[in-house]
Amino acid sequence: MSDGRMRAAFFTETGPPEVIRSGFLPTPVPGPTEVLVRVEAAGLNPIDTYIRAGSVRFPLPIPYIPGCDLAGTVVATGPESVFKVGDRVWGSNQGLFGRQGTFAEYCAVDERWLYHIPAGVSAREAAAGALVGITAHLGLFLHGGLQAGETVFVNGGSGGVGSAVVQLAKATGAVVITTAGSPEKAELCRQSGADHVILYREQNIDHRFTEITAQTGPIHLWFETLRMPTLDRSIPLMAMRGRFIFMAGRDSRPEFPLGPFYVRDLRAIGFAMFNASATEQKRAAEYLNIMLADGRFKPSVSAEFSIENTAQAHLLQELKTVRNESSLHGKILILPEGT
Ligand SMILES: NC(=O)c1ccc[n+]([C@@H]2O[C@H](COP(=O)([O-])OP(=O)(O)OC[C@H]3O[C@@H](n4cnc5c(N)ncnc54)[C@H](OP(=O)(O)O)[C@@H]3O)[C@@H](O)[C@H]2O)c1
Question: Which of 92, 107, 108, 188 could form a disulfide bond with 131, CB atoms 3.0-4.6 angstroms apart?
Answer without folding.
Answer: 92
